[in-house]
Q: What sequence folds into this?
């Protein structure tokens, strides 16, 4: 049985499509704009542009990126009210506090529209002392930053004043009035949680039974001194490892059940395979190692139960830089066709 019937290679770009990409990029369009128009990735655009000798200098590329229209943080109603109140003589900080907006957004709006040139808000020594005192007393940094208009540098100002930043746990305790953490279970329910876990049920099953998170079950278990059971599979660097004995007698340790199922599928078809034996250097300084190498068919196979964005970008770069290599990507649409191993 041939694995090609389950998976197909992405068709290569035609000459007309490549010429269109180069022409659009050479005409001054950014890589992202060309990618959207032609339905390809930005890596593909840059790769074909380099091959055609179209190299845009860094200064020009930076100008194109920074020339995008400024994001408008304020509604038209808020803009009109800000302009009227500022013209009437009200301070920018007072407007920001009353409307619940950031000082920087209002300053950018006034400067960009030409109403006034507003500089970055300066904090006096007395104001800084007041901010530090209120933060130590338990007020949130977000509230103080909005009130004094220093949202982007509140922690830097506190550090300069010698105030240690609160941890997430300390901040949560301050919000609760420094009370003990709220528990989801009664004493009887916690004992029932421990009994269910000790009877062999997993933490996830117990969590679904009580309709809480797994971490809540783990906290209840730890409070009663119930030790977590050993995992079914050995681990390496915190990741699950699945052992599998191939037809050749070699023991492999896979990080995914789909990889192990695919190896069993190849063995059932009596197809020779190798696991993570070929590594390819990429132009960005990283390396790409496909999961399987099927030498009899000259095919590389990548097993993906879920395609993350960074993995998709690396695969796209590999295909652009190594067009002669035949890479097959098996996603969740075709993986259920593989029969899991019985050993």
A:
């Amino acid at each position: 049985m041939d694995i090609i019937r389950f998976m197909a290679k992405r068709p290569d770009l035609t000459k007309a499509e490549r010429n269109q990409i180069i022409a659009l990029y050479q005409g001054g369009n950014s890589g992202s704009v060309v990618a959207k128009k032609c339905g390809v990735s930005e890596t593909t655009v840059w790769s074909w542009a380099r091959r055609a000798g179209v190299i845009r200098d860094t200064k020009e590329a930076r100008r194109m990126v920074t020339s995008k229209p400024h994001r408008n943080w304020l509604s038209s109603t808020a803009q009109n009210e800000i302009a009227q109140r500022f013209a009437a003589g009200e301070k920018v900080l007072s407007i920001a506090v009353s409307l619940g907006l950031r000082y920087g957004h209002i300053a950018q709006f006034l400067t960009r529209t030409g109403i006034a040139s507003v500089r970055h808000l300066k904090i006096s020594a007395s104001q800084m002392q007041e901010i530090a005192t209120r933060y130590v007393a338990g007020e949130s940094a977000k509230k103080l930053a909005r009130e004094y208009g220093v949202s982007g540098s509140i922690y830097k100002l506190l550090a300069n004043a010698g105030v240690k930043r609160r941890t997430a746990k300390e901040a949560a305790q301050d919000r609760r009035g420094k009370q003990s953490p709220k528990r989801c279970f009664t004493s009887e329910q916690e004992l029932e949680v421990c009994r269910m876990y000790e009877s062999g049920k997993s933490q996830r099953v117990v969590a679904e039974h009580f309709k809480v998170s797994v971490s809540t079950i783990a906290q209840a278990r730890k409070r009663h001194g119930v030790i977590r059971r050993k995992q079914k599979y050995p681990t390496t660097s915190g990741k699950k490892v699945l052992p599998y004995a191939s037809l050749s007698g070699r023991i492999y340790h896979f990080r995914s059940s789909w990889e192990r199922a695919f190896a069993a599928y190849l063995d059932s078809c009596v197809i020779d395979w190798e696991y993570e034996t070929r590594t390819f250097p990429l132009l960005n300084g990283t390396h790409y190692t496909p999961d399987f190498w099927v030498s009899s068919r000259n095919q590389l196979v990548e097993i993906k139960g879920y395609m993350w964005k960074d993995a998709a970008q690396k695969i796209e770069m590999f295909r652009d830089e190594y067009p002669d290599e035949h890479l097959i990507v098996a996603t969740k649409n075709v993986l259920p066709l593989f029969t899991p191993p019985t050993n």
Summary: Strands lie at 235-236, 239-240, 242-245, 251-254, 274-275, 280-281, 287-288, 292-294, 299-303, 327-330. The two ends are 22 Å apart (CA to CA). Residues 4-8, 62-70 have pLDDT under 50 and may be disordered. DSSP finds 16 helices and ten strands in the chain.
